[in-house]
Amino acid sequence: MTALSWLGAAGSWLFVVVFLLDGLTRPGYHPARHPVSALALGPRGWIQTTNFILCGLLITAGAAALPQALGGLPLPLAVAALGLALVASGAFRMDPMRGYPPGTPDEDPEHFSLTHRFHDWAGMVVFLLLPLTPLIAVFALASPSWMWASGIIAAATALCSGAFGQLWERDSPYTGVVQRATIILGLSWLGALFLHGAA
């Protein structure tokens, strides 16, 4: 099961590396404002779509190693659900909006497509599980240091996730910064958890 743990860690960290690099090099894309999901739009959209699906599958596969490594089912189930929600986020793209891809009107569309709504629902699951998964870990892990670290990550990602929702509604120029902070905190912790399970 160690190989599955390494796959889970790779999926957690690779997801972050890809969206950071792609966002910094994408013409017309502004990482401080635009969400990660917008990278799935435009001519290079296949990169982020693949990132969602591949890394989501790797995380889901890694979750299969956690019951044996750490004991219990709630934590692995939460991790698997997070991975599947990432896969769904890639399968259903958001609508063009807020100036991206270039040439798109700067405001939100009057009506959202069904695909966009599915993407939103998947995203809600992701941003619910980013703080909920480390919170579950507080009660599932035996190591005091891991319990404390997981509690801190749970609180930080909950605060960031809530702030992201508010900034998104206001179309703040810093929406992308806070969203990225939430994802980076949550998935960095998750990658480390997989390696902890493999140790």
From TrEMBL:
Keywords: Membrane, Transmembrane, Transmembrane helix
Segments traversing the membrane: 6-24, 45-66, 72-92, 121-140, 146-165, 177-198
Entry coiled-coil feature ranges: none
Pfam families registered for this protein in UniProt: DUF998
Full protein name: DUF998 domain-containing protein
Organism annotation: Nocardiopsis metallicus
